[in-house]
Amino acid sequence: MNIIVCIKQVPDTTDVRINPETNTLVREGVKSIINPFDAYAIEESICLKEKFGGKVIVLTMGPPQAETALREVIALGADEAILVSDRAFAGSDTWATSYALSCAIKKIKDYDLIICGKQASDGDTAQVGPGIAAHLDLPQVTYVKKIEEIKDASGRFERMTEEGFEIIESPLPLLITVVKEINVPRPPSLRGMMRSKKAEIITWNATDIGANPANLGLNGSPTQVVKIFTPSRRKGGKIFNESVDEAVEQIAKELKGLI
Amino acid sequence: MDYLLTEEQVMIKDLCRQIAKEKIEPVVAELDKSEKFPKEIMEVLAQSDLFAIFVPTEYGGTGGGILDLCIATEEFSRICGGVAVSYAASALGTFPIILYGNEEQKKKYLPDLASGKKIGAFGLTEPSAGSDASALQTTAKKEGDHYILNGVKHFITNGGDAEIYTIIAMTDKKKGARGASAFIVEKDTPGFTFGKKEEKLGIRASSTRELIFTDCKIPKENLIGKEGIGFIITMKTFDMSRPGIAAQAVGIAQGALDLAVKYAKERVQFGKSISSFQGIRWMIADMATQTEAARALVYSVARMVDAGKTNIGRESAMAKVFASDTAMRVTIDAVQIFGGYGYMRDYPIEKFMRDAKITQIYEGTNQIQRNIIGLAEVKGKRK
Amino acid sequence: MSIKILKDKCKGCMVCVEACPFGVIKIEEKLAIVDLNQCNLCGACKEVCKFDAVVIDKTKIVKNIRDLSVYRGVWVFGEQKKGEIQSVVYELLGKGRELADKLGVELSCVLLGHNIEGKTKDLIAKGADLVYLVDDPALVNFSDEPYTKVLIKLIEKYKPEIVLCGATSIGRSLISRVAVKIYTGLTADCTELNIDKEKRLLLQTRPAFGGNIMATIISPNYRPQMATVRHKVMKQLASDEARSGKVIKESYEEDVLKSRTKLLDIVEEVSSTINIAEADIIVSGGRGLRDPKNFVLVEELAKVLNGAVGASRAAVDAGWMPYSHQVGQTGKTVCPKIYIACGISGQIQHLVGMQSSDTIIAINKDPSAPIFSLATYGIVGDVFEVLPLLTKKFKEVLAK
């Protein structure tokens, strides 16, 4: 079984702080990490490979620096890594991103399953996974929390919903997006880390993947960012830092009407 | 301090740090409370090839050395001394086979130990034979193609949870120390059972049990080396493993120091963080200096072993004494910096103090180590 | 398509460095240098530059010759489960009404399902002028492919200029697929929607970069303009049973309604606790509780107030509380009447998930914790001391 895992390198947004004086982001030392949700996609692909054989191909679109993320995935057990990188991709929104990735997947050709994390932690859109499926006209099952079975070119999946889950069957190939309930990602292995140092990272540009230039980057993106601003934060109110008893007394009084 | 580690050693360090942070730290308090053997964590270490780092490549290892093992043990100990010793004790049970096992034994046992599919343990200590190992009572009697083992080993780390045991037993009691031999005994061999699990002051995640042999019949092929070299095997094994115990002590000291510094920066008294007080700073300075000195000594000895030096009894004893005494001192001071909170079980620091104590006791008490060092000094064996 | 810094105009004033949400501009010898590999051409730097030193060439290859003027009207996707309209739909109708009125167009709701015609009057009462109803056994439960195809058919036929959809597990799956297939723009998780009347543009504002900045997004050359909004972000209108509206029924052939995936079962997992997304009062705990067992203190207060228990990401990551209790960017967005944060320092990602609560009470021992910056009432103190006191006090107050 050949599995393609799509990942994204993101800034570690849990690291980000706001400078209270200037109300701007403090970006020093913000690391680039693999999107935390992708870790579950990677783990699931490795588990499936262990069970069914085949290979895991990890795919990302990003700047040349994203190679680091791909090497990390090789250390975790992926067999091949492909970086889709081109200046023409700059400014891609989710439409153009899913288009470029789908072109790369068409070039890979031989696959049974595509796995994505449910969303990326920097954008939080959850649009790229279904977008790729739409471009490739593949069936999709989003928010998978368990793969129940894969047999005879068909899979049975548990899809998480607000109330519980649904059990969905689909023919292969298909695209799934996974949630953190699906597994516990393993740390890398020492042999994997050694292999990843030397592994070849395949790099494809826009021409390599046969993409229509009109559909790429800012050109191909229907959405445009017109304004970026720091959110106005609500103002703080009364802070009690002397007597706890007084604080409790007053808060209870103020809130009484609301409860 | 830059210890000029190789690229692979840096990888091991980073990997072990990551595993300690992600997989061990969240369960440390629970393991300490429940005294439950960390089977799931051992599986993670296995999957990450960390049982392979001290096994030669031809038997499924990555061919690393003692320094690699020390680095791994130290990183685990920074978070949990109990998990670290469970890991290191498997190495201890593996060394006799690496050092003295024949080709068949190596082929049969090392790949599973290297992959972590099976965990190892080493059985020497008995109720009445601790520091005086020549007082062993466990016997191995040859009968045809088999040896029959009888006796009790106790305080055996990984006892009951390990699959492969290296056992020291007397094949000829009359010869005293020269009558001891080493055997490989597999779990589930008839006549091989386990006694009660000990409740300990520290390293509570590790399991410590009695091993009971009652007419336990093992094939003669399981004799390591030849009859009568059991003590030589033991001494050589300890030479290899002692730096690991010393590294455990360094890790415990470092872990306690990490927590103490963090706490000192957060804790505010008299309107200031207590880390701004000279009294605290000097304590931290001494803790850091001692820990670094211990690490330097441990790494040096580990490098001697890896370079193939054989006469290292004195140096490895020094590393063990110095590092474990340092761990004890540093952890006591760390608890002191935490003040009243340090004494409470809700805070993680008192565990380090409990864990540190064992490093002064096991694998040869610090008094025995000093005998070794003293003897070498007085008899002029210094090179 | 590129970005250029004009050397003769740039003064090296650093303003753009601070404005860049991706941190890819640096100043070297009084000149701004952009790391082209990481620049996303978002234009934040151009916006703030006082010297017009930033030039972004956004010339487009014109390929989209869609006549945008034929697109009229605002649509809301009427998500239903088991025949029940989801409350996010009513919230979107509330917002949709406002947008439609600004544009002077009709507000419509698209309802797909089976035996659900009875629900159309609720949608009209909540603000819809029109309901497009596709009633078919194949649409009884959500399924990606038939829902996608039907929605596309409707959009192609009736050409709305705006389509809004709940950012739910159904909505996100469906609408992403639809947007790609019809090649149009989609903006997820909008927290604010507005209209540029002159250009008839939907101004979609959403948190970006992990909620640390806000971005306003438009789709000027594509229609419909599509956006998803999370539950509880918009406010629904009061039901007006007197409102009248029209129902337009459509039906489709089998090939539009067929699906490669098959829904075998729906399993509901009953949760004994109150769902935080719905709760009026939430008491949340964070890392400051130090130990999972201390969540008892939070639970006790929640019980007295008849509220739900929430948790910060740190507490969930540590395994103290299940993920379903997580409040924040990666958890749930909540807007209760009262939000009590106990031992939560207030990482940005937590704040964006609860900052629209009516009243926020924060308890933390660190007076500089960011949570205090938006608390209505803050108590600087030991959470283990304050919580039991609060619980006791509320018990007394409520007993009266």
Task: Give a quick set of tags describing it.
heterotrimer, A: 259 residues, alpha/beta, Rossmann fold, 7 helices, 15 strands, 30% strand, B: 383 residues, alpha+beta, 4-stranded mixed beta sheet, 4-stranded antiparallel beta sheet, 10 strands
Quick recap:
By secondary structure, chain A is α/β, with parallel strands linked by helices. Chain A has helices spanning 38-52, 67-76, 94-108, 128-136, 190-198, 217-220, 244-255; strands at 3-7, 9-11, 17-19, 24-26, 32-34, 56-61, 80-84, 113-117, 140-151, 154-160, 164-171, 174-178, 201-204, 224-229, 238-240. Chain C folds into three domains: 2-57, Alpha-Beta Plaits; 68-257, Rossmann fold (3-Layer(aba) Sandwich); 281-399, TPP-binding domain (Rossmann fold, 3-Layer(aba) Sandwich), CATH 3.40.50.
Could you characterize the architecture of this molecule?
The complex is a heterotrimer of chains A (259), B (383) and C (400). Chain A is of the alpha/beta class. Chain A has a single domain, classed as HUPs (Rossmann fold, 3-Layer(aba) Sandwich). Helices cover 29% and strands 30% of the residues of chain A. Chain A has helices spanning 38-52, 67-76, 94-108, 128-136, 190-198, 217-220, 244-255, and strands at residues 3-7, 9-11, 17-19, 24-26, 32-34, 56-61, 80-84, 113-117, 140-151, 154-160, 164-171, 174-178, 201-204, 224-229, 238-240. In chain A, the strands form three sheets. In chain A, strands 11-10-9-12-8-1-6-7-13 form a nine-stranded mixed β-sheet, with helices on both faces. Chain A is globular. The model of chain A has no long low-confidence stretch (mean pLDDT 90). With 383 residues, chain B is an alpha+beta fold. Chain B has eleven helices and ten strands. Chain B has helices at 7-24, 28-34, 39-47, 66-79, 81-100, 103-115, 230-266, 278-306, 313-342, 349-359, 366-378; strands at residues 120-123, 139-143, 146-157, 164-170, 180-186, 192-197, 208-219, 223-224, 268-269, 272-273. In chain B, strands 1-4-5-8 form a four-stranded mixed β-sheet. In chain B, helix 5 runs antiparallel to helix 6, helix 5 (81-100) packs antiparallel against helix 7 (230-266) and helix 7 runs antiparallel to helix 10 (349-359). Chain C has 400 residues and is α/β, with parallel strands linked by helices. Chain C folds into three domains: 2-57, Alpha-Beta Plaits (2-Layer Sandwich); 68-257, HUPs (Rossmann fold, 3-Layer(aba) Sandwich), CATH 3.40.50; 281-399, Rossmann fold (3-Layer(aba) Sandwich). Helices cover 26% and strands 26% of the residues of chain C. Chain C has helices at 15-19, 44-48, 87-103, 120-125, 144-158, 169-181, 254-257, 295-305, 313-317, 348-354, 383-399, and strands spanning 2-5, 25-28, 31-34, 54-57, 74-77, 80-81, 84-85, 107-113, 130-135, 162-166, 186-187, 192-196, 201-208, 213-218, 225-229, 246-249, 262-268, 281-285, 308-311, 338-342, 359-364, 377-380. In chain C, strand 2 (25-28) and strand 3 form a beta hairpin. In chain C, helix 5 (144-158) packs across helix 6 (169-181) and helix 8 packs parallel to helix 11. Chain C is globular. Chain A binds chain B through residues 186-194, 197, and chain B through 7-8, 11-12, 15, 18-19, 22-23, 44, 47-50, 52-53, 62.
